[in-house]
């Protein structure tokens, strides 16, 4: 039997996660396409830039899954939590990337809670 989102998570916690995902997607995309390109060096190395752009895409996808009301959001949120944690670590190791790292940490924490019931 399918379980509704309201049974899995409160509307407030889901909205908080949607907001965290949206904010993380926005800052990762914006910083990757402006700040990192302007700074050069470590900011534009392939692994870093690709991780930021893909993190932004996955955060948007997680938000869309939650907004759709499908219980499969749990699986996307679990993956998003892992990618955001990796992006936070990567951004935290590069100068002038603390805002992005902080947004990724917030999103990782929120998505980890939202994806907590995900099963393989």
Automatic annotation (TrEMBL):
Transmembrane segments: none
Pfam family, one: Csp
PANTHER family registered for this protein in UniProt: CYTOPLASMIC PROTEIN (PTHR37310:SF1), CYTOPLASMIC PROTEIN-RELATED (PTHR37310)
Identification of the protein by name: Ferredoxin
């Amino acid at each position: 039997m399918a379980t509704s989102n309201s049974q899995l998570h409160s509307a407030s916690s889901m909205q908080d996660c949607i907001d965290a995902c949206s904010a993380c997607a926005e800052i990762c995309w914006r910083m990757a396409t402006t700040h990192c390109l302007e700074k050069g060096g470590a900011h534009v190395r392939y692994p870093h830039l690709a991780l930021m752009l893909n993190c932004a895409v996955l955060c948007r996808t997680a938000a869309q899954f939650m907004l759709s009301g499908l219980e499969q959001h749990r699986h996307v949120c679990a993956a998003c939590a892992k990618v955001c944690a990796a992006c936070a670590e990567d951004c935290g190791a590069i100068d002038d990337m603390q805002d992005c790292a902080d947004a990724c940490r917030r999103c990782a924490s929120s998505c980890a809670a939202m994806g907590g019931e995900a099963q393989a």
